[in-house]
Amino acid sequence: MVRVRFAPSPTGYLHIGNARTALFNYLFARKNSGKFILRIENTDTERSKKEYEESILEDLKWLGLSWEEGPDVGGPFGPYRQTERLQLYRDYANKLVSEGKAYRCWCTKEEIEKRRSSGDQQNSGYDNYCRNLSVSQISSFQAEGRNPVIRFRVPDKKVVVNDIIRGTVIFEAGTLNDFVIMKSNEIPTFHFAVVIDDLSMQITHVIRGEDHLSNTPKHILIFEALGCNPPAFAHMSMTLGTDRTRLSKRHGATSVRQYRENGYLAEAMFNYLALLGWSSKDNQEIFSKQQLIEEFSLQACNKSNAIFDPAKLLWLNALYIRKKSSSEIFEISLPFLEKAGYSKSELEQHKKIIEKVIDVEKEKLKTLQDIPERTGYFISEDISWNSEIEKKVKIPEFEKTLSEISDLLKTIEPFEKSVIEATIRRFCEERNLKCIEVFNPLRFVLTGQTKGAGLFEMIELIGKQRCIKRIENFLKLKTG
């Protein structure tokens, strides 16, 4: 059975690049009726935080991923946090030492650097100084109270990586020096812990970023030293910004959490991440989750770097919003409306109106963050009028014209878009006013804004009495 894993470090929020890795693992597992395992690599105790672990799990679930085994659901190969597996790593390390496949190294960083700078070494790595120490040398180091690391004894052989995405990659003999697998505090290094975890959890395929390809020879050698076959490897292309540099804060939001808070839909993010470095045979762009599961394959992944384009994601997000019903959009936008200051009772009271507004505005919505701005003036009577904007839309005899429109609104029956539009247009014609000279100021007075839903749909949705009241309030403000 296919068994894959996603193993984030809880040292920050879930990065877009890591979310893509998780997604590819998930799709591969589901496509092959396999198991998707989540484990937490938290041996960096200084930077790892419980709140980051919790946020990573929340964001993965929001994205639409689920797992059969993990720190929150358990499983037959747990525990699923590395700090709860320390004895297992120590046992395996001691096994390698006892078999002569690893050894204790007593060198300090200063000593290694001194030998390196002296020019005795041919490369910048460790010089394997402690490989064949005598008993007396070891006793001397022990007497000094030194705490050793454990280094893997790298055999003099080439390592061949048969990568599913990248093909055959050969690392020649002599490429690696003996590397540390256990630190002096008996905490495993990444290279060792990841192998022991993959081995003990029976991982069949390791799908990860291309930046790990150079680590793979070390992992293969450890597997072989333990007498085990390594899993199959697939190294995905890197996720870069539009300037083709590593995705970072200068490109804008880089975490799934930020996009959630910015009003993006999980379905849009799921769809977009799947398209980064992978494409279907017919270059289709819009997929349901099930379609992606059915079509995904590692062989169709690209070797070239994936470019994360926020503009493309925004376009896709707007598309997914348009596909939803107004009632669905209302429900998922509630956190954004509440954050904007509207109470639950207000929102429930105006639910039908907000849904109608959403229906009118749907083509213009890009994220859920747009909802409060687009609907706020339908909910609240607390309209604020910016004097600088007022100057731009004001016309001669502004107050007189508004007062006449207010009286006119009282006469309109039925109070529907078509009747409202015909009446106000006739008013402009009778007074020899250009429509735009009336429409823009009227929108400003009714909403405090200069753009939004169609003017006459908006007037109908606000309602006759509320429109009249807003005009009266504005005139009172202006006349003192």
Explain what this protein looks like in three dimensions.
The protein has 480 residues and is mainly alpha-helical. The protein folds into four domains: 1-72 and 237-323, HUPs (Rossmann fold, 3-Layer(aba) Sandwich); 85-236, 3-Layer(aba) Sandwich (Rossmann fold); 325-371, no CATH class; 387-479, Arc Repressor Mutant, subunit A (Orthogonal Bundle). It has helices at 16-31, 50-63, 86-98, 109-117, 135-143, 190-200, 216-225, 256-261, 266-274, 289-295, 310-323, 326-339, 344-349, 351-361, 370-379, 387-393, 398-411, 417-430, 435-447, 455-462, 464-479, and strands spanning 3-6, 35-38, 102-105, 149-152, 159-163, 167-171, 180-182, 205-209, 232-236, 239-240, 306-307. The strands form five sheets. The protein has a three-stranded antiparallel sheet with strand order 3-4-7. α7 (216-225) links the parallel β8 and β9 (232-236). α1 (16-31) packs across α10 (289-295), α6 (190-200) crosses α7 (216-225) and α14 (351-361) packs antiparallel against α20 (455-462). The longest helix has 16 residues, at 16-31. It is elongated, with a radius of gyration of 32 Å.
Helix-strand blueprint:
Elements: E1 3-6, H1 16-31, E2 35-38, H2 50-63, H3 86-98, E3 102-105, H4 109-117, H5 135-143, E4 149-152, E5 159-163, E6 167-171, E7 180-182, H6 190-200, E8 205-209, H7 216-225, E9 232-236, E10 239-240, H8 256-261, H9 266-274, H10 289-295, E11 306-307, H11 310-323, H12 326-339, H13 344-349, H14 351-361, H15 370-379, H16 387-393, H17 398-411, H18 417-430, H19 435-447, H20 455-462, H21 464-479
